[in-house]
Design goal:
Number of domains: 1
Strand content: 15-25%
Largest sheet: 8 strands, mixed
Radius of gyration: 17 Å
């Protein structure tokens, strides 16, 4: 079976669609080669390498894991990384023209503070690119609680839009890409034998409680989205 580029990217980046939505976001952002961008939650650096090597940006990556950031920077070619934990980041205000936060915001305990910090770090006219899970309807969520998995930390669409706008951003693009989530789920079933085995590989037994248990029982079907929001100042 031939593996598509999006499937290969998904394995490398550990998120639905891999770099597919990162590439799509660049079409919506007025970012020029040489501009400073941040990958907040860079993992092993796949997105940082893409943004530097293919888009020509001056890239900075951050991750909470000392192991991941060490491996990422060890194999990096032309971009720098730092260990830090959201919501606070060790950068000066107006440091970046673009911030990419892909499959990470749902894991941040204090999402409003994280978005406030992103707004502060962006230059006027800068862009915030988010990809993440979201919940259907008015599913109850918490904006200030630790999330053991990205599913447990996901917000419903209404709350997600609200906290982005409350931070000062103007949302220009909201796109649903749930088919990419379904594609990745199928790939994980093929690789691990079942979705339950996949979640246990990542999180042990936490998938058996909270929103994870509702998803496993078929009561809750999360979506996946791309958001591009702009810092527009008067």
């Amino acid at each position: 079976m031939k593996i598509s580029s999006s499937q290969t990217d998904a394995i490398e980046t550990h998120r639905p669609g891999g770099l597919t939505l990162t590439r799509a976001a660049l079409d919506y952002c007025s970012l020029a080669p040489g501009e400073r961008v941040l990958d907040a939650g860079c993992g092993y650096g796949a997105t940082c390498s893409f943004l530097h090597e293919e888009a020509g940006f001056k890239v900075f990556g951050m991750d909470a894991s000392a192991e991941r950031i060490a491996l990422a920077t060890a194999r990096s070619t032309g971009w720098g990384g730092v260990r830090a934990r959201l919501p606070r980041l060790p950068f000066a205000p107006d440091a970046f023209k673009g911030i990419f936060c892909e499959c990470v915001l749902s894991l941040v305990p204090d999402k409003p503070s994280c978005l406030d910090n992103f707004f502060e770090l962006l230059q006027s006219g800068g862009h915030l690119v988010l990809t993440d899970l979201y919940l259907p309807g008015a599913t109850p969520v918490s904006l200030h609680s630790p999330a053991l998995t990205c599913l447990d930390g996901a917000l419903n669409k209404t709350d997600l839009i609200r906290i982005i706008e409350q931070a000062g951003f103007k949302i220009r693009i909201w796109e649903d890409h749930t088919p990419l989530l379904k594609q990745m789920a199928c790939e994980m079933v093929f690789k691990h034998g079942s979705l339950e085995n996949f979640w246990n590989t990542l999180t042990g037994d936490v998938f058996h409680c909270g929103l994870g248990s509702r998803c496993r029982a078929g009561e809750l079907k999360p979506g996946y989205c791309l958001i591009v929001a702009d810092k527009v100042t008067e």
